Amino acid sequence: MFGKRTNDPSNLAGTAPKPVAAPASAPAAKVADAPKPAAAPKAQAAPAKAKPVPAPAPEASSSRSHSEEYYDVKTTVFNALIDTIDLTQLSKLDVSAAREEIRDIVSEIIQIKNVVMSIAEQEELLEDICNDVLGYGPLEPLLARDDIADIMVNGASTTYIEVDGKMQTTGVRFADNIQLMNICQRIVSQVGRRVDESSPICDARLPDGSRVNVIAPPLAIDGAALTIRKFKKDRLKLEQLVKFGSITPAGKTLLEIIGRVRCNVLISGGTGSGKTTLLNCLTGPIDHEERIITCEDSAELQLQQPHTVRLETRPPNLEGEGEITMRDLVKNCLRMRPERIIVGEVRGPEAFDLLQAMNTGHDGSMGTLHSNSPREAISRLESMIMMGGFALPVTTIREMIVGSIDVILQASRLRDGSRKITHITEVMGMEGDVVTLQNLLVYEITGEDENGKLIGRHRSTGISRPRFWERAQYYGETNRLAEALAQSEVMDEHGNPMGEHHG
Ligand SMILES: Nc1ncnc2c1ncn2[C@@H]1O[C@H](COP(=O)(O)OP(=O)(O)OP(=O)(O)O)[C@@H](O)[C@H]1O
Ligand SMILES: [Mg+2]
């Protein structure tokens, strides 16, 4: 044990918060009979390292709500702890040792102060305080859960989560907006970034790989908005997408073939519809000999292939310099002898470079894009290129799209919260100046059960020879392809296939 603990119990009792690095939100101890601080001289100075800076939080750190009394006790204990502990020493310990240390001191404080608490409550208090000092405070219990897809903090008092495709409120509260900002700052500073009034928008990553976005006041009016896309330790695989009903087994085979035979693929979908997940799944069947380069805003993909180079964009610094855009990355990629280029999200002029890459011998390249249907994906690509300042006639852009993209996959989050792959669509060619598409597999909703769960099915549109048939032949995949398409046929009540040839 270490620290500035003295044997004088008065030093532990209800002392006022010391001005440690993030003191603003620590309210004074509310316990009435708390003696005045014993003005014990501090043996060691305030924290030197930024890491375990406490973000005092006399509020609930879990989704359970507590009584006001609990918060009062927590405030008192927290303040006594901050007064007692040596943060410089603490910062030298690893997390578990630091936790042990804090637990010891807190238990001691509770004893000395004669706090009456059940064992369970005491455990919770210990957890809460450890989380505030060492971790991300009230977010910790949410971060520890593996069933959460997104955490959305809308200011200090409101936090939502997404579980099983459904939005839920939580009881998680921060002490105030200052504590919330301290935690945001702690998160982003770990990747060398900062967030404050002068640079209020920030993307970052948690050490576990979760994607983070912060937008701070004054842009966020009711306190900082923090959004976390939780990293799934076990990324979903195609088999799991089948298990969840996002795609059929035959559809899975189709996707595997599309990835394997080096079709150029665009994954289209709305926010949180499962685009990145699908992209990740699609890279599964890629040969381990291939050289793959990924470009992302925030590295999320987890490729299994050993010969992968991962690139990430960089925002400008405070002086507005040093930005590396997605376009810079994709352009640079071309000089790195890639066999496939994978762009996490296409949202700007890099669309042009990706199409060019797809067109010039980097077959099997992939990217995702925000849009609600395969048709819309084409027009989104078109407008990204036009807005990128390339002085090209629309028809030329369309020809370029047709010459580059082979398949569009549509991911959707349906209104019952389920996620589906709703289209496997081929880009066929041009009719006049219109791009023609052909659906191979579509998901159609046929009804809804009494619980509001949608009922539907995937079915092929009756195409037996997709445009990438020759590619499949080259890779010896025609049998599997024909079989998967045949299995996807759905018969009508007369036993005839319900085909439809146009998308
Ligand atoms: N088919 C699926 N079934 C169930 N959950 C899924 C499915 N696909 C994705 N998810 C989950 O949904 C969440 C969002 O997925 P993902 O990150 O792939 O979406 P996205 O479309 O890339 O989102 P964004 O637009 O924010 O980049 C993740 O937690 C992921 O695990
Ligand atoms: Mg994504």
Number of strands: 15
Overall mean pLDDT stands at 84
Q: Major sheet: size, sense and barrel closure?
A: 9 strands, mixed
Question: What is the ordering of alpha helices and beta strands?
Answer: HHHHHEEEHEEEHHEHEEHEHEHHEEEEHH
In whole angstroms, how far apart are the ends?
Answer: 70 Å
- Read across the widest sheet, the strand sequence of neighbours is 9-8-10-11-7-12-13-14-15
Compute the CA-based radius of gyration.
28 Å
- The total count of helices amounts to 15
Q: Could you state the oligomeric state of the chains shown? A: single chain
Morphology call: elongated
The bound ligands are: adenosine-5'-triphosphate, magnesium ion
Proportion of β residues?
15-25%
- Unreliable residue runs: 1-63
- Broad structural category: alpha/beta
Question: Could you describe the 3D structure shown?
Answer:
With 503 residues, the protein is α/β, with parallel strands linked by helices. The chain is 31% helix and 19% strand. It is built from 15 helices and 15 strands. It has helices at 68-84, 87-90, 95-112, 119-134, 140-144, 177-189, 238-243, 249-260, 275-282, 326-333, 350-359, 374-387, 394-404, 469-474, 478-487, and strands at 148-154, 159-163, 166-169, 201-205, 211-215, 225-229, 265-269, 292-296, 308-312, 340-343, 366-370, 407-413, 419-431, 434-448, 454-460. The strands form 2 sheets. It has a 9-stranded mixed β-sheet, with helices on both faces. The chain is elongated and about 80 Å long. The model is unreliable at 1-63 (pLDDT under 50). The structure holds adenosine-5'-triphosphate and magnesium ion.
